[in-house]
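Troubleshooting: if your tokenizer reports a length mismatch, compare your output against this known-good record of 136 residues.
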Amino acid sequence: MPVQAIQLNTIRATFDRHFTNGDFTRIIEEGQLLLEHAKAEQKHKKMKFGYLFLIKAYYYLGQFEKAYEYALYYQQLCVQHHETDTDFYLCYMQAHIYEYEKKFELVQKVIEKGLAIAEKANNYAYICRMKIFASN
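Known-good structure output:
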């Protein structure tokens, strides 16, 4: 297993533990630190995880403006690396962005796109998330 994959799995586990404990302040601190290191190392996958963790933490804290800000950074990073057709996280974030912007016609489009990407990747967790989001 590549070193970067091991590191990302470790990072995910650490953040998952903080989410389980509801320690969103710690997630924000460590997410910012992860972003700093990822930017210095020019590791865009780590940057994406940093943004995802910050988005989720701010979202759960009810700080939607901050969550929205980081979602836009995440989206920009996906565009820069030509990942807009393969990243179901992006579709999920875009659905939230469009919902926040009250662009409801676009919400349905990115949900359908995200579902197709998740189904192609057999990612059942994201298939469920997209379907739940669509039903709300």
